[in-house]
Amino acid sequence: MRGELTREGLRGLMRENARHAPGRRSYRVFRDIQAIKERLQINVEFVRPENFVPALAGTKGRHVFLETVGRVSFYHYDPHAQLLSKIVRGFRKDMQDADSFITSGLVDPERFHSLVHGIPEAAYAQYPALSQRAVLEAIDGFLAQIGRREKG
To answer: How far apart, in whole angstroms, are the C-alpha atoms of residue 146 and residue 152?
Structure first.
């Protein structure tokens, strides 16, 4: 059974990916990840937040550079988009992760609020299990809870 991805596991995955990267040409990192994650016994999912929730405006410009290992550069997918999907999913681990996005400073609550409230109602048509009202209530409730903790 594969374990939860840790900092050491992520670094190992990055090193292995860089080791397998061909020189001087474009390389799709994902092609080797399946074998590497099995070998390292770590859990890595190949999903984007937009598979579950509407896209936020400007996502492509908010990926966070992590580091370059060998010839491969690694990025943290837009933390705002990740935060939205975690709050909507709402599992205990997701909510712990959501808290860390805010407390670490990866996501500014006001900017996040603005981005989520800026999702056009029509964008929800692709997600029949979601309603705009329910998503906004979940986001606003989460942000209110964060605000209360910061004040208290």
So the answer is: 10
